[in-house]
Write a structure and sequence with these properties.
Number of domains: 2
Oligomer: single chain
Order of helices and strands: EEEEHHEHHHEEEHHEHHEEHE
Strand content: 25-35%
CATH topology of the largest domain: Ribosomal Protein S5, domain 2
Structural class: alpha+beta
Mean pLDDT: 90
Helix content: 25-40%
CATH architecture of the largest domain: 2-Layer Sandwich
């Protein structure tokens, strides 16, 4: 098991886990799973109105922030970031880390600068919100290393302008109903842990393209049933409530994902669901022990890396 999938210690703040040492700030930015996603329609601003339930998992990237007085923000990969992920993630202005940092830098002194080192584990175009988690960590981390008087509300306003999943990962909630285009957060309280096993094909999905090909259903579903499973402690019923409106469009776009989802279901004997716009698909497990067994089964039968995702 590579360090990308190693367990981490307890959460602090919206982006996950943090420690400060020798002038460096180290933040772990979490991924998310959508365990419910309905598309209510298209908005005037071009985005889609959503009703979704997200959960924050312990599968994380890591950001190391080193403050300096250069007035510039530089981003690079850690030496141990896999080559496959380096090739898939830009380090220029398209990266949400730099976009978030630059927005914050505009509120501080001209000398605010930083080197940010990204240890990437969460694949892009996977529906796990890796880039969004990076942006949330960058907002929190840069505010701290530059000692900026920026409120949480201001950070959330910036997050809403950067991407649809960032507000949830910034919020600190373990689970939430997210509405609007994802920026309206209603935290959900639940006890215990949730366990999922996830796999991903080699090819990712373009979020804009998946949404473009998705039509609102004639009978809209509601997140209330999934939310009630969590808050009432009936996670044994969760599997029967999970739904993602984007799945059909994504499967038509990505035959490799559709095939993997089918084989994953056959190998594990349980339904597999898609997170976000894909291409990650996952199954629900009732305990850490069961999840480890399912993970081993998936890796043996499907010959792919399987992630054990704990919430």
């Amino acid at each position: 098991m590579s360090e990308c999938y190693a367990a981490t210690e307890g959460p602090v703040g919206g982006c996950g886990w943090r420690s400060v040492s020798g002038g460096r700030l180290v933040l772990q930015s979490a991924s998310k799973l959508n365990i419910f996603l309905e598309v209510l329609g298209r908005r005037e601003d071009g985005y889609h109105e959503l009703d979704t339930v997200m959960v924050r998992t312990r599968f994380c990237d890591t950001l190391t922030l080193i403050p300096d007085f250069s007035g510039a923000v530089r981003l690079r990969f850690s030496d141990s970031t896999p080559a496959s992920l380096r090739n898939a993630v830009p380090l220029d202005g398209r990266n949400l880390i730099l976009r978030a940092a630059e927005q914050l830098r505009g509120l501080g002194a001209s000398g605010c600068g930083a080197e940010i080192i990204l240890h990437k584990c969460i694949p892009p175009e996977s529906g796990l919100g890796g880039g969004s988690g990076n942006a949330a960590a960058a907002l929190l981390g840069c505010r701290q290393i530059w000692n900026l008087s920026v409120s949480d509300a201001q950070l959330h306003e910036m997050a809403a302008g950067l991407g649809s999943d960032i507000n949830f990962l910034l919020s600190g909630a373990r689970a939430a109903i997210c509405r609007g285009r994802g920026e309206q957060i209603q935290p959900l309280q639940f006890s215990g842990s949730l366990f999922f096993v996830a796999v991903r094909p080699g090819r990712g999905n373009s979020t804009p393209e998946v949404f473009r090909r998705t039509s609102a259903g004639t009978e809209l579903r509601t997140s209330a049933h999934v939310a009630r499973c969590l808050t009432d402690g009936r996670t044994d019923l969760l599997e029967s409530c999970i739904f993602n409106r984007l799945t059909d469009a994504a499967a038509r776009m990505n035959a490799e994902m559709a095939d993997l989802q089918h084989r994953f279901q056959h190998a594990t004997g349980r339904p597999a669901f898609m997170s976000g716009s894909g291409s990650t698909v996952f199954v629900v497990c009732r305990s850490a022990r069961e999840a480890r067994e399912v993970q081993r089964t998936a890796e043996r039968k499907l010959r792919v890396v399987a992630w054990l995702l704990e919430v």
